[in-house]
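thought: user wants a sequence for this fold. calling inverse folding tool.
action: design(structure=
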């Protein structure tokens, strides 16, 4: 137990130690300041602007900024959709895989454009190298870059006064991808590649089995296949960009995607590295590092609470596991103890639980263990992390701007309590900002509950469940929560490759991604045009422990009120059985 506690503490300390300096670097990049990579990247950045005709100094109104963001993402969706359907006729397809059917191509294209990376397919069996490299990997970069761009548009809204512009989307996107995501991805690719994560363009390798396997229908199998492909480069950005879509079907539980404890550490820390760093970037950008630390503290507290509950639940006994002495719950020389079902013996409970918390707290969705095999409470926490609106650090950029919308909601409620007009970061919060903040905060709950409610009434959806009863409902609820939270992980027993599920889950992903973006950019435009208010004795401090606690309470309250009935019928009911 002590060893596990040291592991948990070590992961968290490493995360904070890496996030602090990275936050400073990102802020310098996004304001166009000179950084140590500028001599290398700046010439390429200028060339790209000349090639595309972009004026990097042009300032955009919020409507133009939003229009550019939506147009860029729509074009990305259209190109990826076409690539997936036509992959059978394109090169870099050594296994001669056919194109995807339109429902699966639609779902996959939406999934990667929205930074969700929900996978209703198995990568090594259904996607060519061209689709993986030029389709999915590219979207992993630009979807994460879009999140950082929108975040800095909101930051400019807080910083600027009497201004009708919030920056330039094309410049923000280029800087976030070129200076932040690509260099970090190169480093992570080299680190995990050194551990054995594959990176090639060769054919799959076949080998003779020592013993012939006979399936239930009588088919004899005497050969095995080791898949290949450019995996390391995609895995690096899938983790750093909180994308999470695995190169292989079993994601980071696959030995060619995550072969060693060191690769596991690098990939796991990459999940939260940029979302955590952006909190410190925010504090520097608005001129109040205490403000950034306060937001970070609220997120970090929720992260630690979730990690503690998952760790305790997976290590402790449950009635189902202990019945008839079927599972050895006590640790020993040959037995780690706890619930090891669905977990890698290479990583054990501590690392698996940490990854599960990190990946669902961020909108990452990669896995190194199967969440479907977690205890009811362990599974509940992973679901709740996503249902809170991906604000426990959340996705790259989108997690922080989602939490800032909750902060706006918090100061409004606090203002009602004391009878004052709410203020946040020196800007008066008025009905327009409140409407947009509520839209951003409720987009995820509405999309999840509406989608899962409709799906639960359809007999064909029940056929996609691996389990029935309370756990079956948890599988269904998890699927819509992961898509509504732009997460992408899965309760692995749910078969989602049907026309209805592909389309409905795709719609949920679109609503949960782009409604908050619309609301956040609109808030940015409104705030930028306002004056800064002087701090008075009646101003609610938003950079202290009290505000962090109030913010946590509001986040949990919205999540509890929205999802408690559904969770009661799923994981809570399963726990009480």
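)
observation: tool returned 577 residues.
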């Amino acid at each position: 137990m002590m060893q596990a506690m040291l592991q948990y503490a070590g992961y968290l300390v490493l995360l904070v130690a890496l996030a602090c300096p990275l936050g400073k670097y990102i802020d310098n990049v996004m304001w166009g300041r000179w950084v140590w990579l500028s001599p290398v990247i700046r010439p390429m950045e200028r060339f790209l602007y000349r090639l595309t005709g972009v004026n990097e100094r042009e300032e955009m109104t919020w409507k133009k900024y939003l229009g550019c963001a939506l147009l860029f993402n729509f074009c990305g969706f259209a190109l990826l959709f076409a690539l997936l359907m036509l992959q059978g006729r394109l090169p870099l397809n050594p296994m001669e895989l056919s194109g995807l059917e339109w429902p699966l191509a639609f779902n996959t294209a939406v999934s990667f454009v929205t930074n969700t990376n929900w996978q209703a397919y198995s990568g090594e069996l259904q996607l060519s190298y061209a689709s993986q490299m030029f389709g999915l990997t590219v979207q992993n970069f630009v979807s994460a870059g879009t999140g950082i761009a929108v975040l800095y548009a909101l930051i400019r809204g807080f910083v600027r006064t009497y201004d009708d512009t919030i920056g330039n989307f094309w410049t923000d996107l280029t800087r976030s991808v070129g200076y932040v995501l690509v260099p970090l991805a190169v480093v992570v690719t080299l680190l995990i590649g050194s551990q054995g994560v594959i990176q090639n363009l060769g054919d799959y390798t076949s080998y003779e089995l020592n013993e012939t396997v006979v399936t239930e229908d009588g088919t004899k199998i005497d050969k095995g296949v080791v898949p290949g492909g450019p995996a390391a480069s995609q895995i690096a950005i899938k983790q750093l960009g909180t994308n999470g879509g695995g190169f292989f079907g079993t994601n980071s539980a696959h030995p060619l995607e995550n072969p060693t404890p060191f690769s596991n550490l690098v990939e796991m820390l990459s999940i939260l590295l940029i979302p955590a760093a952006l909190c410190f970037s925010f504090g520097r950008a608005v001129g109040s590092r205490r403000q950034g630390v306060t937001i970070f503290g609220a997120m970090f507290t929720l992260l630690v609470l979730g990690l503690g509950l998952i760790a305790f639940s997976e290590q402790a006994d449950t009635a189902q596991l202990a019945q008839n002495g079927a599972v050895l719950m006590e640790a020993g020389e040959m037995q780690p103890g706890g619930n090891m079902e669905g977990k890698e013996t290479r990583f054990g409970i501590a690392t698996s639980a940490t990854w599960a918390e990190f990946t669902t707290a961020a909108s990452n969705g990669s896995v190194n263990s199967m969440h479907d095999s977690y205890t009811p409470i362990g599974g509940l926490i992973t679901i709740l992390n996503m249902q809170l609106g991906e604000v426990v650090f959340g996705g790259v950029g989108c997690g922080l701007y989602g939490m800032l919308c909750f902060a706006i909601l918090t100061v409004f409620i606090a203002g009602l309590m004391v009878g004052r007009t709410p203020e946040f970061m020196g800007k008066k919060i008025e009905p327009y900002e409140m409407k947009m903040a509520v839209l951003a905060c409720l987009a995820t709950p509405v999309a999840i509950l509406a989608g899962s409610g409709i799906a639960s009434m359809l007999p064909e959806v029940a056929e996609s469940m691996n389990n029935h009863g309370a756990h079956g409902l948890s599988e269904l609820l998890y699927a819509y929560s992961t898509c509504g939270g732009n997460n992408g992980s899965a309760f692995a027993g749910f078969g989602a490759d049907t026309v209805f599920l592909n389309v409905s889950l795709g719609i949920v992903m679109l609503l949960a991604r782009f409604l908050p973006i619309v609301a956040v950019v609109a808030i940015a435009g409104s705030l930028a045009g306002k004056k800064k208010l002087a701090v008075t004795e009646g101003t609610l401090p938003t950079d202290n422990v009290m505000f962090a606690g109030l913010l946590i309470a509001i986040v949990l309250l919205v999540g509890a009120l929205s999802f408690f009935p559904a969770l009661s019928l799923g994981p809570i009911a399963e726990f009480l059985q």
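thought: summarizing for user.
answer: Here is the designed sequence. The beta strands are 205-214, 220-226, 423-424, 427-428.
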